[in-house]
Design goal:
mainly beta; elongated
Length: 93
């Protein structure tokens, strides 16, 4: 459960593939209904495929009504993200 002002930890394990460059950059972002509220430091991952755990501790803003974790992989100038839908977002109580 998410509550305004509460410090929480989100972890996500992602499977990534980097084939068109020597490395890519993984980031776990947390968005609310209006904006990004927290993000991990960028993690450089090597060419190839692998699993990577991403962990982020943050305080839920007082104005948040939803919390949506989103992983992104940037390779060169291209960024792909996990989908954001009703299954990936959680309400803030």
């Amino acid at each position: 459960m998410f509550y305004p002002g509460r410090t929480v930890t989100i972890d996500m394990t992602v499977l990534y593939s980097v084939v068109s460059a020597p490395s890519g950059i993984l980031v776990l972002h947390v968005n609310d209904q209006a904006r990004e509220v927290a993000a991990t430091m960028p993690l450089i991952v090597p060419r190839g495929s692998n699993e990577q755990a991403l962990v982020l501790t943050f305080t839920v803003p007082q104005t948040s009504t939803t919390v949506c974790p989103v992983a992104s992989l940037t390779v060169g100038t291209h960024t792909i993200t996990t989908p954001v839908d009703r299954y990936s977002c959680s309400p803030v109580q």
